[in-house]
Amino acid sequence: xxxxxxxxxxxxxxxxxxxxxxxxxxxxxxxxxxxxxxxxxxxxxxxxxxxxxxxxxxxxxxxxxxxxxxxxxxxxxxxxxxxxxxxxxxxxxxxxxxxxxxxxxxxxxxxxxxxxxxxxxxxxxxxxxxxxxxxxxxxxxxxxxxxxxxxxxxxxxxxxxxxxxxxxxxxxxxxxxxxxxxxxxxxxxxxxxxxxxxxxxxxxxxxxxxxxxxxxxxxxxxxxxxxxxxxxxxxxxx
Length: 238
Known about the structure:
The structure is a single chain. The chain has 238 residues and is α/β, with parallel strands linked by helices. The chain folds into two domains: 194 residues, Flavodoxin domain (Rossmann fold, 3-Layer(aba) Sandwich), CATH 3.40.50.360; 32 residues, no CATH class. Helix content is 42%, strand content 16%. A five-stranded parallel beta sheet has the order 2-1-3-6-7, with helices on both faces. The protein is globular, with a radius of gyration of 19 Å. The N terminus is likely disordered.
């Protein structure tokens, strides 16, 4: 079991970054927040931070760097935006990586300092495999910023969560909850996210046809709400 050894504190610390521009109302926060509650129940000291808040000022960036430095485990949850990470998250990761380049990775008095990074990514596509390029980017970030990769959870059909608390989302997220429970137990023990949790998270939340039907209904509702029915088929760049 790899843990950050520090005799000056009793509790290991977990830092959660909400990587969605929607912040506290996002599905990323709903999913990652559930995991953090489970880690807190297991005895870790949990802290939450949104990337939007971290970027607001120099003071907030300083606070972010201090929180990252103090964390044994960093968890980042975010949505897939056009097959990529959201821009504010990219900027945050660049700041963290740049600061950590060339810094000490060991403390003479406390021994080796191992900080783990775990990732949760969700997308609106029916297939969870659409998240793979973003996961590859996050794994590369872990390498360049000096984190030990602790694994990832990738979810398709993320729109079904809709920013709701998982405890209130019903049976549609039962595999998501099971995956997060398994991940929390393993991360709390100082290990990585197990393959069983990754496989559970990747399972479709519902039949593909049903998800597409619900998504199309949602699009039509938004079109009507914004009075854009007559412009649905516009092709301004054609």
